Amino acid sequence: xxxxxxxxxxxxxxxxxxxxxxxxxxxxxxxxxxxxxxxxxxxxxxxxxxxxxxxxxxxxxxxxxxxxxxxxxxxxxxxxxxxxxxxxxxxxxxxxxxxxxxxxxxxxxxxxxxxxxxxxxxxxxxxxxxxxxxxxxxxx
Length: 140
Fold this sequence. Notes:
- With 140 residues, the chain is mainly alpha-helical.
- It contains five helices and two strands.
- A hairpin with a 2-residue loop joins strand 1 (3-7) and strand 2 (10-14).
């Protein structure tokens, strides 16, 4: 089985240097659909190998913490704009990740759980504010 990595121009096998046919070959190129100003330049096999090597050396706990931080930022943005269901989805995703990794995140676990709790409290506060605004509007 050939290992592949996704690129905007289709799947690229890693290791043998040959490009295999992919579903991307039968559809219009992303450049044709979206223009090429937002697409990354071609990625060489050497660059792909370098990224894979870097990933091999990054502890998974760091990757999980990074994803939690990203989802937390997304949640905060949605809380600020009043999109409470979107914020809740991001918060629930964090909670699910942390629940499934309980006891395995080492020193980061306490910080990540505290971060989640802060997001949950912000969510509750935003929901209360939204309820109050709705009640005031209905009273008028």
